[in-house]
Amino acid sequence: MVAALGGLARRLGRACLRSACSRRWASTTTTTATKPSHPANPSPSPSPDHITLLGTAYPRDRWTNVSPSIQAKLGRGLLTVPNHPLRIIKLRIEQYLNETRPGTDPLLAPRAFAIVDSLSPVVTVQQNFDSLLVPADHVSRQPRDTYYVNQNQVLRCHTSAHQVQTLREGHDAVLIAGDVFRRDEIDASHYPAFHQMEGIRLFSHDTLAKYNPEIAGSPIFEQAGSPTYGETAAKQKSHTALAAAVVERDLKATLDGLARHLFGSEIQVRWVDAYFPFTHPSWEMEVLFHGKWLEVLGCGVVQQQILSNAGVENKLGWAFGLGLERLAMVLFGIPDIRLFWSTDSRFVSQFSEAAALNPGANAVKFQEFSRFLSRSKDTTFWLPSSGFEDNDFFELVRSIASDLVENVQMIDSFVHPKTGRTSKCFRVTYRSYERDLSHEEVNLLHNEIRNRLAADLKVELR
């Protein structure tokens, strides 16, 4: 759920809990309509009626915007590749949350989190948005941000899309991991396919009483109409202040320990108040890393309505979410998010999950192999009167050049003083991690991008 928060959170994948935590959720409404408008230019496909994803054919409609380059990422299974750094981070998180730790404090006891990591990334709009209380007019629903399979199905934007499903299966403690997809800008830390992991933990009255004996003889839910019924900054309207405080304490103690497990026992942690539609109260956890505060994850107390919708009664819970790429880039010193998808054996061979899972093991630092020369090309165009989104341009570039594009940066934008027309200039930087790119190859790619720009996005090239 909080994985919906996305990315490290704010930069990766707008990843963690998303790949951009609060940036993704800070705005609760769009500025136009209560229903997202369909994409103007669906990606071409060999079949005009269906799109095939992971061997299943789905009906195509005006909403379909999953490009062939994204289709090629489905089923890669990076979290199952031995010694892959993303798999290592996932296993280290599982190791911490499920290992037996010494001490008498129940907050230090293992939780027996179930592991859910093989669910299909094709989910319904209801799973991806509605079940998490994302407003119907929220910007995250727009096709400029989300990959629509069709009007009713999407590629999940966060692992939180499976939260209600897993809770209905009866789990009180569960970790959900998988690949997620979001249309995004192009640079070293953003990629349209990335990986999230989230944890959910539920508490019954008896469980909370073990943490705080005062709860044993007290309710954990307020009665409607009582003087203390109502939402505050510290609790939801139906929660008692004491129960909410115990859940918060457990959440922060658990994640503080996780941060020390990943970054080292001396790491400094701080909590920043945040907003997410699916939790209240909510926080972002930051760590002081190399002299700078780094956002690691988003978390909070699960909205009681979500639990009720999942058929969970008489329990409270917390959830957290994080982006695995962000953590791996920071802990292993990986400079470019494209490397996680590389098939070059020089990448994965640098890592060992057996060594990384040993207590007290130091993280191996990535040793960069040969970097080939980059080649940059600029393209300038007048925008159409309406309908142009930067993300549409980024997606078009990716659909043509895929991982041969290292960066796309807007280097100029101005409005003509007489006509009022807007002009933008983007610099596209091409570089492969696996081979040198010739001038001829780059020119062909860039010319195709320019031609598609005019045809698909209705811009006027300059």
UniProtKB/TrEMBL annotation:
<keyword id="KW-0436">Ligase</keyword>
<dbReference type="Pfam" id="PF03147">
    <property type="entry name" value="FDX-ACB"/>
</dbReference>
<dbReference type="InterPro" id="IPR006195">
    <property type="entry name" value="aa-tRNA-synth_II"/>
</dbReference>
<keyword id="KW-0547">Nucleotide-binding</keyword>
<keyword id="KW-0648">Protein biosynthesis</keyword>
<protein>
    <recommendedName>
        <fullName>phenylalanine--tRNA ligase</fullName>
        <ecNumber>6.1.1.20</ecNumber>
    </recommendedName>
</protein>
<dbReference type="GO" id="GO:0006432">
    <property type="term" value="P:phenylalanyl-tRNA aminoacylation"/>
</dbReference>
<keyword id="KW-0067">ATP-binding</keyword>
<keyword id="KW-0496">Mitochondrion</keyword>
<comment type="similarity">
    <text>Belongs to the class-II aminoacyl-tRNA synthetase family.</text>
</comment>
<dbReference type="GO" id="GO:0005524">
    <property type="term" value="F:ATP binding"/>
</dbReference>
<comment type="function">
    <text>Is responsible for the charging of tRNA(Phe) with phenylalanine in mitochondrial translation.</text>
</comment>
<dbReference type="GO" id="GO:0000049">
    <property type="term" value="F:tRNA binding"/>
</dbReference>
<dbReference type="GO" id="GO:0005759">
    <property type="term" value="C:mitochondrial matrix"/>
</dbReference>
<dbReference type="InterPro" id="IPR005121">
    <property type="entry name" value="Fdx_antiC-bd"/>
</dbReference>
<dbReference type="Pfam" id="PF01409">
    <property type="entry name" value="tRNA-synt_2d"/>
</dbReference>
<keyword id="KW-0030">Aminoacyl-tRNA synthetase</keyword>
<dbReference type="GO" id="GO:0004826">
    <property type="term" value="F:phenylalanine-tRNA ligase activity"/>
</dbReference>
<feature type="domain" description="Aminoacyl-transfer RNA synthetases class-II family profile">
    <location>
        <begin position="178"/>
        <end position="359"/>
    </location>
</feature>
<dbReference type="InterPro" id="IPR045864">
    <property type="entry name" value="aa-tRNA-synth_II/BPL/LPL"/>
</dbReference>
<feature type="region of interest" description="Disordered">
    <location>
        <begin position="27"/>
        <end position="50"/>
    </location>
</feature>
<feature type="domain" description="FDX-ACB">
    <location>
        <begin position="370"/>
        <end position="462"/>
    </location>
</feature>
<dbReference type="InterPro" id="IPR004530">
    <property type="entry name" value="Phe-tRNA-synth_IIc_mito"/>
</dbReference>
<feature type="compositionally biased region" description="Low complexity">
    <location>
        <begin position="27"/>
        <end position="38"/>
    </location>
</feature>
<dbReference type="InterPro" id="IPR002319">
    <property type="entry name" value="Phenylalanyl-tRNA_Synthase"/>
</dbReference>
<keyword id="KW-0809">Transit peptide</keyword>
<dbReference type="InterPro" id="IPR036690">
    <property type="entry name" value="Fdx_antiC-bd_sf"/>
</dbReference>
